[in-house]
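Field guide to reading this record: the first block holds the primary sequence, the second block holds the structure written as discrete tokens, and the final block holds curator observations. Each block starts with its own label. This record concerns Antibiotic biosynthesis monooxygenase, catalogued under organism Pseudomonas sessilinigenes.

BLOCK 1 — SEQUENCE
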Amino acid sequence: MSAFEKNHSFTQLIEFEIEPHQQEPLVLALVEQSERLAQDHGGFLSASVQVSDDGRRVLNYLQWQTREAGEAAFQGFESGEQDFWQLILAYRARTVTFGSFQVRSSIARSHDNALHCRLAG
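BLOCK 2 — STRUCTURE
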């Protein structure tokens, strides 16, 4: 593992393709799931749930301090600690796409309105 992977955050993206009438219930379920992850797993940084305008896609964005923290949380899904797989079945997702990404650059606005950029080197 490179020094970069040890020192920079890790992001998991999970995209669900669903019927439009399932979008809002799935959003609520993912918000609840994200709150449990935040409480139950060390290394959690942030999460967001985003929706497409056509109602057919929901994106769950999870950011972790390290790859290990994100992978440990996901192993909890696979071992049945969480009800993630039930979400897929309950909301009849047509497809679910998983992506894992190492953060290489980020930009954020601080409370004093300044922009701060963090670039991996």
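BLOCK 3 — OBSERVATIONS
DSSP finds four helices and six strands in the chain.
Helices lie at 3-7, 23-40, 67-78, 84-90.
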